[in-house]
Design goal:
mainly alpha, single chain, elongated
Length: 227
């Protein structure tokens, strides 16, 4: 069981070898024994490693409620968020990660926490005809992570997801433009197709958008001549 707990601490601090994280490691797994709080931490990590995330949440929540000032409370806070993430309870996971970030803004795992928030949104990206809030939020989160921690490994990992976010957003604008075009609302369609060109890099819709821009302009020109 102790090995499970130590493994959990490794997960908590993302396997980094930097000295700051080693200090935090030493602070958390020091010689002090706080009894039941430690047992709840062990039980929580045991359930987490076994994939029983609901049970893990129960143990970690008890730890937070009963021992809010223990040295294991920070572990509980993060693993509650991670457990919700694995259960695909994204709203709960985002809330827990954001609370962790507010409570511990200088903690060494903050890049990981921000990355996880982005992944929660990213994993909810649907087809281009659906609400694009997840794609937009994921993009904003990954871009913010890059700006705040440009040299961090999680910022680099987040950057790898940005193209899909952009493609989803560009695709949505193109989809709406196509709807307007087919409905003969050429001005509205033209606005959307122009948005594809101006707001997003070439992620697969530029040539199509250019073609429909020409069609919209031709249709609008024909309407003007008729009038």
């Amino acid at each position: 069981m102790k090995r499970l707990f130590i493994t959990g601490i490794i997960i908590l601090f993302v396997g980094s070898g930097c000295s700051a994280i080693k200090k935090t490691w030493n602070a958390i797994v020091g010689k002090e024994d706080i009894g039941s709080a430690q047992q709840l931490a062990w039980d929580g990590m045991g359930a987490y490693e076994d994939g029983d995330y609901k049970e893990a949440i129960e143990h970690f929540q008890q730890l937070k409620d009963w021992y809010p000032f223990s040295k294991y409370a920070i572990l509980a806070e993060l693993k509650i968020a991670d457990s919700h993430f694995h259960l695909k309870q994204y709203a709960e996971a985002i809330f827990a990660y954001e609370e962790f970030e507010k409570l511990h803004p200088r903690n060494e795992v903050i890049p990981y926490v921000i990355y996880q928030i982005g992944i929660c949104y990213f994993d909810q990206i649907d087809t281009i005809d659906r609400d694009q809030t997840p794609a937009r939020k994921a993009l904003e989160t990954f871009q913010g992570l890059n700006k705040q921690f440009p040299d961090d490994q999680y910022a680099r990992s987040g950057s790898e997801h940005i193209p899909k976010c952009l493609k989803s957003l560009a695709g949505n604008d193109f989809y709406i433009g196509l709807f307007y075009y087919k409905s003969k609302h050429y001005s509205a369609a033209l606005y959307r197709f122009m948005s594809v060109l101006s707001n997003y890099p070439d992620v697969g819709y530029h040539q199509k958008a250019l073609q429909y821009i020409a069609k919209c302009e031709a249709s609008l020109s024909g309407e003007t001549q008729e009038n």
